[in-house]
Input
Amino acid sequence: MNPKFSDEFEKQLYFLSRKVGRAIREYSMVQEGDRILIAVSGGKDSLCLLRVMSWRLKYSPVKYDLVAAHVRGNSLGPTQGLSDSLRCWIEDLGIALHERDIVLPIGEPLPMNCERCTRNRRRTLFEMAAELGCNKVAFGHNLEDFAHTALMNLLSSARLQTMAFMRSYFGGKITVIRPLAYVREHDLIRLANAGQIPTQENPCPLVSESKRAAARRIMQLLSKDFSHAADNIVRAAKSNPPIGE
Output
C-alpha cells in the first residue's frame, strides 16, 4: 500500500527517493558521517538530486552532511554564477552553497571541447571537495545519461561501456557517486515541475553540437520504437568495466 501524500511534490519526492535509494543501497554509496558535495550545475538533474538527498536526511537512519558546489564556467572559460533565485532556493533548504570559477591549466586553449571542459570542471570540484572536507562528490547523471555515454562509446570505439555508478579517486580520499543512475529523465521533469524548482539553462554554446547531444538524438529516435531502449543499453553496458574518467 502506498502512503498518502499532502501534495503532488511530496508524492514525486517519495517515488524518486525510492529509485535513488536503490542505487545507494546496491553500491553502498552513502555511509554514516559522509560529507557529500553535490555538484550543482543549475539544471533540473543536479537540483532534483540536491532536493531528494536533503529530503532523505529526514528519514534515513544513515546521517550525512550535504554541501552544494557550483563551478562557474563552460567551454569558453569562466561565466556568471547561479541566479539569485536559485541561490535563495538552495539556502532555504539549509544547505551551504559554494561557487568558484573553473580552474584552467596555464595555456589552456579556448574554446575547450566537451572532454577538456568536463575534466577541468571535475578538477575544480575535487579541489573544492578537499577544501570543504567532503569525502564524496555526487553528480546528477540520470539513466538516460548513462545510456548516452554507452552509445557514444559504442559508436566511437566499438566498446559498450558507460560511467561508473561509484568510483574512488586519490587513494579513496574522494569518491564520486551517481545516485540518479536508476532515475528516468521524465521523473526529474515531473519533480522539478511539481516543486517549481528554479532551474536555469546551460549557457554553453557547444551544448547542441556535442557528441552527447548527437547520442541524445539517436536515443530519442530509438525510444520511439523501443520504449526500454535506455534501460536495456545501460543493463548491457553494466556487464562491462566502466569507462575511465
